Amino acid sequence: MFDYLIVGAGFAGSVLAERLAAGAGKRVLVVDKRNHVGGNAYDHYDDAGILVHRYGPHIFHTNSREVWDYLGRFTEWRPYEHRVRASVDGMLVPMPINLDTINSLYGLSLTAFQVDEFFKSVAEPVDEIRTSEDVVVSKVGRELYEKFFRNYTRKQWGMDPSELDAQVTARVPTRTSRDDRYFTDTYQAMPLHGYTRMFENMLAHPNIKVMLNTDFREVEGQIPYGEVIYTGPIDEYFDFRFGKLPYRSLTFRHQTLNQERYQPAAVVNYPNEHPYTRITEFKYLTGQEHPKTSIVFEYPGDEGDPYYPVPRPENAELYRRYRELAEETQGVWFVGRLATYRYYNMDQVVAQALTTYKKITGTKAVRPPTRQPELAGT
Ligand code: FAD
Ligand code: UDP
């Protein structure tokens, strides 16, 4: 008899499995339909012996000391600051747009103060910032929006930035400095021996049993368990009762090249050329030394595994209906990027899972008085 059945061995499922087993002494069964743990953060050594991320580049960054310390129990870290270049007008320039981006693009030598003036002169005032178009044009104007954001977003999401919530492009800042890091979080690092090793350490507790290649539907009702923690797509859990929630997918094309380096940065974005959005060269991320190099191309599409919830008002509305159902469903906790339909980074999912753990154990502590003798047996 398991106390919990956990569906999904990604961050949401693995953090909860670890906490419930090690923190609360529960017996936990984790199932995943894939043949590995780690969810989308899974990494492995490819045929050439290079550590690659099967589902695209995963860079860990957080401002949360709690999340950092928690994961640090299961891995050592390798300090890593991520840098991205965008291919625009035949050049590879820093992305996020910064002082050097503008100077290279326009052949100028502006100072930080002058570039700030420049942004102000080209910015288009927007009354209320609602969409992903508003975010960018209100800061850097239409020309830079067209060069860096419009086409990338259309490719990545299959829709125009004006149809997406502000939060999508707001992930990428604009800078007047020369700082060319993709993230500015306090903690930025990669698990020293990879994500998969970190997940294996989390799941190594004797109270945790992991079943791979197993869909939730195969074990539902077949194995005795108490409560369920579900980290798959929420619409699928409810058999698409209100219709399908859109999730954007990607096809990853991995390649190993007979050369030590392929490109000048970990990631190069291609807003305006090619059907793929970006190319990642993994050795930058991992620091691995190897005479060959492995890269991955990302081709967005609607068909395939669900990777991104699509943030726009009608989807939020549809999700709200599923969430109401979820709230009425006793004994099932919905956690993670797919089950709560949120465009969350890894650290946000870890934080959400840790909060859920507190809720679960807190709920237990203040449960209705089932232990009162007069209620026993009723
Ligand atoms: P998942 O990792 O999706 O895990 C869910 C698991 O549930 C999956 O393994 C799935 O197989 C399993 N499952 C689903 N349904 C069933 C079922 N019916 N039965 C059994 N198993 C089931 N975040 C960052 O912080 N930094 C990054 O650089 C970054 N890069 C990213 C790049 C890409 C291309 C993508 C797609 C995401 C990226 N993320 C990044 C986000 C990160 O992947 C997620 O925040 C995180 O992996 C979500 O964890 P999760 O446990 O919620 O979901
Ligand atoms: N984006 C863009 N051009 C870029 C980089 C990002 O238009 O060169 C937009 C695009 O809509 C993308 C979003 O900003 O989906 C968020 O970018 P991020 O790099 O955070 O995407 P993720 O790594 O989550 O795929």
Q: Would you mind describing this structure in some detail?
A:
With 378 residues, this protein is of the alpha/beta class. Among the domains are: 2-81 and 190-245 and 309-361, Rossmann fold (3-Layer(aba) Sandwich), CATH 3.40.50.720; 97-170, no CATH class. It is 32% helix and 21% strand. It contains 11 helices and 17 strands. The protein has helices at residues 11-23, 65-71, 99-106, 112-122, 132-157, 195-202, 216-219, 234-237, 282-286, 313-328, 346-365, and strands at 2-7, 28-31, 43-45, 51-53, 60-62, 77-79, 84-88, 91-95, 187-191, 208-211, 225-230, 247-257, 267-269, 278-281, 293-301, 308-309, 332-334. Strands 8-7-13-14-15-12-16 form a 7-stranded mixed β-sheet. It has a 5-stranded parallel β-sheet with strand order 10-2-1-11-17, with helices on one face. Helix 1 (11-23) runs parallel beside helix 11 (346-365) and helix 4 (112-122) crosses helix 5 (132-157). The chain is globular. Uridine-5'-diphosphate is lined by residues 86, 95, 148-149, 152-153, 156, 168-169, 171-172, 269, 271.
Which molecules other than protein and nucleic acid are bound?
flavin-adenine dinucleotide, uridine-5'-diphosphate
In the predicted model, the low-confidence regions spanning at least 5 consecutive residues are: 364-378
Q: Summarize model confidence as the mean pLDDT.
A: 95
Distance from N terminus to C terminus (CA atoms, Å) equals: 23 Å
H/E series? EHEEEEHEEEHHHEHEHEHEEEHEEHEH
Q: Please name the CATH architecture of the domain at 2-81 and 190-245 and 309-361.
A: 3-Layer(aba) Sandwich
**Structural class of the helix and strand makeup?**
alpha/beta
**C-alpha Rg (nearest Å):** 23 Å
Q: What is the name of the CATH class of the domain at 2-81 and 190-245 and 309-361?
A: Alpha Beta
Characterize the main sheet. Answer: 7 strands, mixed
